[in-house]
Batch of 2 targets.
Target 1
Amino acid sequence: MAQNRWVADDSHRVQTPILEAKNLAVSYEIRDGQVNAVRDVSFKIHRGETLGLVGESGCGKSTVAFSIVRFLGKNGRITGGSIRFQGQELQDLSEREVRSLRGDQMAMVYQDPFQSLNPCMRIGDQLCEVLQEHRGLSDREASVRAIQMLDAVYMPDSAAVMRRFPHQLSGGQQQRVVIAMALLNNPALLIMDEPTTALDVTVEAVVLDLVDELRRRLDTGVLYITHDLGVISRVADRIGVMYAGEMVEVASAVDTFIRPMHPYTEGLMRCVPKLGLSKESSSLYPIRGRVPAPTALPPGCVFEPRCDYARRRCREKHPELRSVEREHLVRCHRAEEIRETEWRPSDETILDLQERLRSRSEDGSKVLEVSDLRTYYDQESKGILSLFGLGEKRQVKAVDGVSFEVGAGTTLGVVGESGCGKSTLARTIIGLESSRDGKIDFLGFDATLPLSRRDKRLIKDLQMVFQNPDSTLNPSFPVGYQIARPLRRFGKVDRARIGDEVVRLLNRVKLDGSYYDRLPRQLSGGEKQRVGIARAFATNPRLVLCDEPVSSLDVSVQAAVLNLLMEIQQEHNSPLLLIAHDLSVVRFFSDAIMVMYLGKACEIGPAEAVYAPPYHPYTEALLSAVPTADPRVEQKRIRLSGSVPSALNPPTGCRFHTRCGRKVGTICETEEPPEIGFGDQHRIYCHLPLEELEAMDAVITA
Amino acid sequence: MAQNRWVADDSHRVQTPILEAKNLAVSYEIRDGQVNAVRDVSFKIHRGETLGLVGESGCGKSTVAFSIVRFLGKNGRITGGSIRFQGQELQDLSEREVRSLRGDQMAMVYQDPFQSLNPCMRIGDQLCEVLQEHRGLSDREASVRAIQMLDAVYMPDSAAVMRRFPHQLSGGQQQRVVIAMALLNNPALLIMDEPTTALDVTVEAVVLDLVDELRRRLDTGVLYITHDLGVISRVADRIGVMYAGEMVEVASAVDTFIRPMHPYTEGLMRCVPKLGLSKESSSLYPIRGRVPAPTALPPGCVFEPRCDYARRRCREKHPELRSVEREHLVRCHRAEEIRETEWRPSDETILDLQERLRSRSEDGSKVLEVSDLRTYYDQESKGILSLFGLGEKRQVKAVDGVSFEVGAGTTLGVVGESGCGKSTLARTIIGLESSRDGKIDFLGFDATLPLSRRDKRLIKDLQMVFQNPDSTLNPSFPVGYQIARPLRRFGKVDRARIGDEVVRLLNRVKLDGSYYDRLPRQLSGGEKQRVGIARAFATNPRLVLCDEPVSSLDVSVQAAVLNLLMEIQQEHNSPLLLIAHDLSVVRFFSDAIMVMYLGKACEIGPAEAVYAPPYHPYTEALLSAVPTADPRVEQKRIRLSGSVPSALNPPTGCRFHTRCGRKVGTICETEEPPEIGFGDQHRIYCHLPLEELEAMDAVITA
Amino acid sequence: MLVQDYMTKHPLMGRLTMSISEVQHYMADNDLRHLPVVGDGKRLLGLVTRQSLLVEPVRLRSLDVWEISRYLTTESIDVVMIPADDVITIKGDATIEDAARTMVRNRVGCLPVVEDGIVVGIITETDLLAQLAEIMACSADIPAVRATVQMPNRTGNLAKMVQAIAAQDWGILALGGAVNRDDPAVWDAVVKIDNVTKDAVREVLGEVEGHRVTDLREA
Amino acid sequence: MLVQDYMTKHPLMGRLTMSISEVQHYMADNDLRHLPVVGDGKRLLGLVTRQSLLVEPVRLRSLDVWEISRYLTTESIDVVMIPADDVITIKGDATIEDAARTMVRNRVGCLPVVEDGIVVGIITETDLLAQLAEIMACSADIPAVRATVQMPNRTGNLAKMVQAIAAQDWGILALGGAVNRDDPAVWDAVVKIDNVTKDAVREVLGEVEGHRVTDLREA
């Protein structure tokens, strides 16, 4: 036996792609004309193949998806090219025929499962309805089939799930229901638009595994749309890179990552930290400029204004998508000429930054010291008794005895799934939540005090950058005003110079003075986050807490924001507490890392130690789940079953024991795990014997 | 493993027959009009199938064959119907196309191999010529292929045979060469017209095996024409029965023999003795009347005048060939009504005869006693020395020490291959050859005397019926005159009453007085043989020698002649010496049997003892080779290699040792075999130990 | 090794609204030999094959040019399709041997795979052939000897061969057999053995009583 | 188990003198999917398939009725046949697996069997399918259990299974395997064992380390 089989492929089968778009163009009618949102997009999806569609927001990915299922809305229409589904031109079909295809042979899964689920109907009824409509099955048959399908998407206790309403399920479960629903009719094509963006990395990993398995088992063609290069690397066979409404590169996943040929693709790759690399050893290079509006496209290559390789030809002539190598299409005049190794960043300051990061020295002084911190909430029981005031008050132990410290100028990353308490931890430190117990020593201040009782100085020195700047920017005030506020409040700057200082801060976050008077809604996501950073650093704080500062941003913006954060941190020598779900980002940015699970630290230590064996089993599982933007990387496949248990009623003993793949025995269920130290401040809380911990294999191997 | 396989047949393959004749009609132009020799003949031959075509002489079998290969001569032509070869209508093809088919895709083998071989060309050259003409092979390639083909037909020493001329080969070898030549181009259709009629039963068996094997291995369709029901039973998958130019029944071989549905087929079956049956236990029923001339066909069913089941409808309406059961076609109005078991012979005397044969008692007196008889010929050496008179005179020991006796009223059958000396034995007894040694005591006479020196009485009492009456009937004299001759010569009858006596004798052999004045050429073969019998019995002899009295006759005539012989023998109580190659006939007719090989008796004894184990190995081989007219019968497959060695230089020891499958050891090569007696006058001459002889299995099992 | 593992899932399918000419184009463009025709919910309505599409020459000659044009462009798919009732189908959980049998027996080159009346795939002779041949052929890159052995078609004979091989500690890569086409009393077995020489195989298998090695090659 | 044992000998063949219409009739009448065209001496000149015979609808529409009639009745077979140089052929002594591979790889449904340029037979997908399926299926009348076992695609694993079976003194009727279609690291083996129960097979094969019985049925 060996892998070499003489029928290496299915070349004897029908070769017609499930979906083939040729020179597709989509326009939207707007008041003053028409927006050519998608132009000249060509790609194929074969049976059992996943085509990943990547590109920054606004590049037209979703428009392509909607044009396939003819969901372009009243003002959108296909203005050119063709879309053939199973060899048939979709545009030749009547609305009725497309509708029948949509239920029957194509299905779509959106980012937000709620969009696809009727909140007022039980899951079972929703699934059965699909079967009854398209298949004419009886109630009983439909129900049996629906349960089978829920089992197929590894829904635990699927019969019980049938009786639940959507809101009674976790996000991951909801997304699985949506996928099950999409697969009920065994569609030939499954379109997924950012289906895992809202999910935890561990749940995401399970869903991605599921998509991949179903694709293989059912030979479904999948169009997978995402901005996440890690996810696309894991899920796609081939990748189409879209830019400004055009397809700029189509190639196999490996080629896309290893030998990208379009400068835009190259640029994207330079924006994402590779898992395992740190800020000292590598740099992120944001792509300069921004995606042009479809109404203001450059005359030549649409990417030319941002391209480091651009020549005159690129400005003058719009390049065609052409085949440069076998199965590798690129829309670039210079694809064969450019060499990635010859590339130099246009912004040389990034190299300086790396240099400075490398040469910085830690003075070892502690800025923040947290000991045995506990933050509990009271929660009313939802049972019927509560109506009579008889409900037992239950405690959510969001943070339940966490100890760590942050040294001057360093970054502590905090990782863990949603519900692990990492945001509560940040909010407790910043004073938005009250701790129940434990100490927070911040440069001698007691930071366990609630915000309302904090000293002005403490507030000034302890700032925070939030995940969603929208929620902290007041939509009614101009940007300048909002940055000025802390300056004014803490009186750090002379009132007369506040305006100048705001402009300086704006420049510092690479926004020019013109932003001063803009309203938040006139800003892009990245710009808003820059404003948030500017505001956080306005008071020259001694510690900045960053809660998912880049997770809602496109990769290029993300890189710019991360660089910015690093630069400013370097400038101020301010320590950071970085909370993020993206383990590559955390690894890249942090000096030390704490892994949290259900309010407790599982593992804490220097970043390189935490990301290498020995691991806490939970760390191991997280690393196994993280999508890495490199298809060559091999990851051990460890999948956690279920989601994080409720913090209302956390498991006894080691809280992770219910999901742990390395459970030792009943000791895990009854006793708190001991702390095991590995020197250099690396600590693991686990019942595993030392030998076993030390014998662990690396999860990720290149 | 078991014989039941799920793909029981080749139903997925092309079902087009190799040959399909539909309502074929062939006519010959004669001086005063046209003879419709073949009318309304339909049949199919599938790939790898042998269709046997049987029927008496003059029924049109060969005409059908010639019409396929378009060899009908100047005056013959197809006047109706179609012949499709491989799905193509042969009549649509040009003469050139038919010629190309004939060499390439159809081949024909005739009764007489000499007809197909050029006597002046070496075998090798003749074979290679075929290959070079149709295949354009080089000399060398052709020669290699020719030798391969000779090997395929089991020609011993094929390379040497390539250099020989046809006359240097035995009849069986010649026929194998002809078959090899026919198969050289791997024809789809092989037509064989009585290909084994001229061969010994042992050689015939080998040739029949060969045809069957080649048919199976090469998937050739075979049209096999013969009058011999035993041969057809062995070789055919399906059988077409022809009568008077029409196909009257087509069915599987088993159905044809076991459940014939046409009265003619039934009648044929009643004419042939089943191997193992004797005249006491069964009767032969000749079909009354004779085949009508194609110019004088009855208005209704052509068989009606001879049919025992005929009704008025049969006289008035010509029946169609119709499907009565699956794959069973019959041309008879009454096929479903008639039951073979209800049939009664029209000639009740046959039953009387059987009765009389059963009740006869042997008086035990000996009529003929032969002891250690030897008949040798001198033969000149054919070597070059003989040209100078230096050639050594060599002796052919045709009969070499044979002893037996014939009792009053009984029949001794003598069997053995050509060259075994059985004819020489008869000719020696009758005085046509001189014996070298031994005694022949015939009722006290010494019958070793040559004919010229015999007493008139001896000549009168010792008569002979020859195989070929033509050779003993003088074509210039009327029949009556020739029967009258012995009467006149031996003065048994008053000269004045000779005419009456001749008529009585003619009536006795079932010919009426009108035959008196006919010339031999006006008689059919059966009629001539009747005349021969009448003449032999004219002198009321005491012993009649019959040398193949029925072998050249059609089965129905054969049955009549055999019945006649039995009747007359019964009447005269005259013993018979019956020489025949047909072992079923010999078994049926004889009381005792002697098996001869190369001038010696191998085995002698009562008929039922000789035909049952223990056997002499040669008897065993003969019985294994005999074609039995019953496809249900199983025969052990024992095939003798080679032909009978030359009697000029017979093998030492047991003469059969060179071909014997049960050879004991060198004793067989050096010592004459001993006589082993089994009581009841059953003797076997063989070196085999008694135990082994007694442990032999029956060759034929029903 | 079930039909569902080897069928083509999501086969291209025709709709009743297609004209004959559309069907011809569709099948030609996509190099299809067989086209299941489905109604809403992928319910099998019929099957179009190349054969059923052939315009019979007789018919062609009898139609005038207008009729031919009309025939091809206006007549719908149901004129040329084999109706569902006459289409031989198979279920996904049948074995591939079953599928092969069904095809051979019914002389069809393709079977729509149907569950509850719904077309879930299509399996063709070629799919099965590729797989069955692969099963017998094993991987191409292991040095193996392929032997054909004739043996009496009686229970126990295959076991004798397997035992002879096992006694040598040889590895069997593939094994199968069938009744001899010419002689039903004979069973032909094919066996692939890895890491042996032809001579060794000839010797060992040739010694089994009643067995005859008729073909031996590296494969 | 060679092509020459399973090919159709004496296939129906076309001649160059046939018109297209004759060829169409000939193939339809005889239910032929493939027709080798030969010259004198059965030398292969070309191959006509149903596909090559299809009058393309486009062409039909562009021809007027007279042209169609002329096309069908006067153009000769060589217009529609695939010329010999482009016909994939095979020799009689190739194995049936080879033939299957050749067909699958070249996407042809039939191979003329040619020796020295002479057509000696024709072998079709169906011929091979019937035989290969039979090899795997064995006879229908022996009670046997058919198991599909997934195992790592690494040398030695098939041997482990065969040994487990041999250790029970069970008889293997057929055995074969192929790389899993979905996962090349997995090898699917199919084995037929006679005179055992499904439970016994499940137990014994299930115990082999790293192996998983994925399907078990009586066959």
Target 2
Amino acid sequence: MVSDFQPTLDVPVQALLPFAMIYGQPMAEMPLDLYIPPDALAVMLEAFEGPLDLLLYLIRKANVDVLDIPMAPLTAQYLKYVEAMQASNLELAAEYLVMAAVLIEIKSRMLLPKPPAAIGEEGEDPRAELVRRLIEYEQMKLAARSLDDLDHADRDFAWVEVWVEKSLIQRLPEVTLDDLKDAWLGLLRQASLNKHHQIRREELSVREHMGIILRQLRDAGEQGAPHVRFESMFDLTQGVPVLVVHFLAMLELARENLLELSQAEAFTPIYLRLKAMSMDSEVNFDYGTIEG
Amino acid sequence: MEPSKAKRVLEAALLAAQQPLSLRDLQSLFEDVLSPDVLRRLLEELRDEWRDRPVELLQLASGWRFRTRAEYMPYLERLNPEKPPRYSRAVMETLAIIVYKQPVTRGDIEQIRGVQVATQIIKVLEERGWVDVVGHRETPGRPALLATTKKFLDDLGLRNLAELPPLEALNQTLELANER
Amino acid sequence: MEPSKAKRVLEAALLAAQQPLSLRDLQSLFEDVLSPDVLRRLLEELRDEWRDRPVELLQLASGWRFRTRAEYMPYLERLNPEKPPRYSRAVMETLAIIVYKQPVTRGDIEQIRGVQVATQIIKVLEERGWVDVVGHRETPGRPALLATTKKFLDDLGLRNLAELPPLEALNQTLELANER
């Protein structure tokens, strides 16, 4: 069980890279017997993640089996580092001292004669708990490295995020009949509306046709023929009720002085045109010439 | 670097960029300087390669950028549905007056609403294609007469205005409501 | 919708996505339901189409997303001279313990690492969105139980924890090493 804890020149399993740079020189392994300058100690202290990390380093460097750790030399070496660090007044985490105590305790327990083991049982090795922790920690340490080797977002790759221009699509408000009704009710509530604002269905139809007629005449005017024959204003396929409404709308427009009806003489065609058009069309228009 | 490889680098950078990349930005991708001419040519080739794809490479004032094509927006919208916007009360009341009292002038609307009607409000309805000018009233100033369009009826699923909620019934509801 | 058109819609949505899109997200792009089988087939076709391009389509824990291939990162990094810092060993070891032993308390992590775990370390991982509190252990002090998130898997290009590199069986390696 006892083997000499002789540091060898073998490359330590986990120290393939220099673990610290001291005065610009890579330090591949810890100077053991030389005087260690306090600066270097400070760098070393930072290089280790804690006492387990330091212990693993010492074990791997000596190339000994973690399941059969020679406790005496390991403890001696560990204490040497800790003492050196304390001597340099470095702020040593309490965990390092706790670990020192643990090592010393294990070492002394191994010197004691083994208590008689129960039949069929092997007495527990005083190092068992330490070994379990060392193995578990090393496993996590290696896992951390393989996680680090995976491609990380933003470090090893970038997400694709093509621009979406929201304004390319214009969202138009939706309006329902209820919205219109509510708006009208809102107006009524404002109370300024009196009876004549009540609108019957028939009137609404007439109003719609007023718009239709005005559009017909406007379009005719835009096409250079502002005068439209009365008959051509009616779509006979739409049935009598619509024709009546259309005619009523026409009369209402004439009453509101929005269109002008004209007839050159009796029994000749009747023409309509927008009242507004008379403002900018020739005054002395000869209706007779249109006939034909 | 091979131009074809450089083009792929440009493509990767532009696809991942969160803002337009200027020519100078794109230059900085390469250790060896790429001449502005070569860079521009590669970008144009890239734009052509993407011509028939759902994403397009655009040259904007501040640089080059990929953008999803407008025709895909209706689908993309469904991923993050936003509440449709609503018209303000002023717009809705103006619309209601034009609907029920057409043809009306802006003055008519102002008289009924009791407040000035901002040009913007009429414009919103005109741009929507719901309202247009059908003539002018022969009074001083010749104010425009506004009426609803066929598109308005179509968008509201109506065949004609007579299908609108009748106002008589509305007014009665209101009177009843006020009596209570 | 034609499958070829549906594929282009998927492509547009995935290229523009700001996080991985789940199958459910992708379904919602279409008005007519696309069967999960068809959807999956289209996604696989899309992934194949992008095989030799500088950007790849990946299936991750929370869905599908495009990302640039690792070989293009050295170029892209030049755009942002501020390199994201590599995490320290302390952060990576803490992460490894949370990943492989989850759910764990801070005390568990300290036990394994043999040193105190600074609050800052946990905070770095939480702020990255890689780790969060999933509960509390019913022991004195009710310490928080930490676990990894879907974002962690997404950011490492994984679909689930089973895709992580397996833990090395150390005892055996050691014995073999000694036998030599």
